[in-house]
Amino acid sequence: MTENTYDIAVVGAGAVGLSAALAFARDGYETVLIGGLDVRRDGRTVALLNGSVRFLEALGVWPAVASVASPLEIMRIIDDTGSLFRPPPASFRAGEIGLDAFGWNIENVALVETLAEAAGHAEHLTLVPEFATGFTTDEQGAALTLAGGTTIRAGLVVAADGRNSKLRQIAGIDAKTWSYPQSAVTVILAHDREHRDTSTEFHTRHGPFTLVPLPGRRSSLVWVTSKEEAERLSSLDDAALALAIERQAQSHLGAMRIDGPRGLVPMSGLSVNRYWSRHLALVGEAAHVFPPIGAQGLNLGFRDVASLRDAVVDGHDAGHSAGSDETLTGYQRSRDLDVRLRTAAVDGLNRTLLTGMIPTDFLRGAGLLALSNIGPLRRIVMREGVLPRVGVPRLMQG
């Protein structure tokens, strides 16, 4: 049996856990990252919004990320619900709010690989590719037991171990879960026409059908539909699936072909009332899970990390330890409202698409029409989506 001591231990080596380890090591905290990399390709991508770009710039990894990502300069929404109150297509341009792009789209696995490469060379950071099997706390801090028998002690443990977080369960933090009668088909596509750095989202009666640019004449697709239809689509061969996608996209990008892995993602959500316990902080999907709508999930996970880093630094300046109740209460305050608002927005959008009620269709159509035609309102909504003014962590302020 061996025992090693660190300032901070991060459990979970996904994009959120890797970024947390890099952020704390950057500030000089002796940090250990526990967990093995998940580099399975499942056709999923993430649109990194402006705050996440600034965060990755602060971590020193943005140039490497940008080299394999594609900018999102225009966001286009098309109502394809068949509603009586269907508004015309709406386009939103990043230049209206002074940005070159709303965000950058990158394959999840490419992002993880880039962050892992940086972590392998970071000072003050130790990588331990094992699984944590036990977690206890005392007055001095926390102790993690690893599968190989080693004990890791730390003043603060950061749980970035996903929606089924073992650390959250051991700490007794309750999680509320829910599901939708939908699944999402994810896939990487090649197509004949240029996407012109435009993300196009078709609002259908079964959920959003979203094409997001990748480098070259390639795009990622998230097709949210009924569970039965998603399973049927997933069972198609590549040629038949590409044709179904082209038809659903109204040949918007011309002929298509499957150009990468595909996935099938159940639509579900998770939330917690407490983001912390004694010497433990939850980040990413350990704290909140979103369906793949609106590019909120990983961007919120990065905001968790940047907010926790601020709380730890501010707590240190006030004489509190990284895992103290005072420090972690500050972290809770910084995240609670932000996550609740984003959860409500994503849930509300999805449910309005599923209902066939005329009043709901009217309100949704009227809202999109207002955003299209009222410039100041459109710019306010765009800024809040990618550049929120209140409570932005320091590493995301540029």
Automatic annotation (TrEMBL):
From which residue to which does the signal peptide run? none
Domain FAD-binding, by residue range, is: 6-309
Q: Which SUPFAM superfamilies match?
A: FAD/NAD(P)-binding domain
Q: Which cofactor does it need?
A: FAD
Q: Which GO terms describe its molecular function?
A: FAD binding; monooxygenase activity; oxidoreductase activity, acting on paired donors, with incorporation or reduction of molecular oxygen
Question: Per its UniProt record, what Pfam families does this chain match?
Answer: FAD_binding_3
Q: In which pathway does it act?
A: Cofactor biosynthesis; ubiquinone biosynthesis
* Gene Ontology process terms (BP): ubiquinone biosynthetic process
Keywords assigned: FAD, Flavoprotein, Monooxygenase, Oxidoreductase, Ubiquinone
Q: Which domain of life is it from?
A: Bacteria
Please name the PANTHER family in this protein's record. UBIQUINONE BIOSYNTHESIS MONOOXYGENASE COQ6, MITOCHONDRIAL
Q: What is this protein called?
A: Ubiquinone biosynthesis hydroxylase, UbiH/UbiF/VisC/COQ6 family
